[in-house]
Design brief:
rod-shaped
C-alpha cells in the first residue's frame, strides 16, 4: 500500500466519513424540526370548509344549515388536540436528530485524533 494507507488508517477515515455524514444529517434534520416547532405547517384549506364540509361536497346546493355549536366546539377541541400531538411529535423528532449529532461527534473526534496520532508517528506532515 501507499505510504500512510493501512487497513487501520482506512478504517479511521471511513468512520470519520460516516460520523461526519451522521452529524450533518442530524444538523439538517434538527434545523428542519426546529422550524416545524416554531413555524408549524397549517392546513391549506379554508377554515370555512373545515367547519362546513358538506358545502364543499355539493356545490349545487349553496344553502345549508350550520352545524350546532357543540359540534363546532368538538371540532375545535379535536384540532387543538391534534396540534398538541404534532407539536410533541416534532419535539421528539428534534431530540432524535440532536441525539444523532451528540452520538456522532465524540466518535468523529476520537477517530480524527487517532488519524493525527498515526500521522505523527509515521512522520507525515502537511508542511511539505
Amino acid at each position: 500500500m501507499a505510504k500512510g494507507w493501512s487497513i487501520k488508517n482506512l478504517y479511521y477515515y471511513l468512520v470519520c466519513l460516516v460520523t461526519l455524514f451522521m452529524f450533518v444529517g442530524g444538523a439538517i434534520s434538527s434545523v428542519n424540526n426546529a422550524m416545524l416547532i416554531f413555524l408549524p405547517d397549517k392546513p391549506n384549506i379554508p377554515i370555512f370548509y373545515s367547519y362546513y364540509p358538506d358545502y364543499r361536497a355539493d356545490f349545487e346546493q349553496p344553502v345549508f344549515d350550520p352545524p350546532p355549536l357543540e359540534e363546532l366546539e368538538t371540532r375545535r377541541a379535536e384540532q387543538e388536540e391534534m396540534g398538541a400531538y404534532y407539536r410533541g411529535y416534532s419535539i421528539r423528532r428534534l431530540l432524535n436528530s440532536m441525539a444523532f449529532m451528540i452520538i456522532a461527534a465524540p466518535f468523529y473526534i476520537y477517530h480524527w485524533r487517532r488519524i493525527g496520532i498515526a500521522a505523527e508517528k509515521r512522520g507525515d506532515s502537511d508542511e511539505n
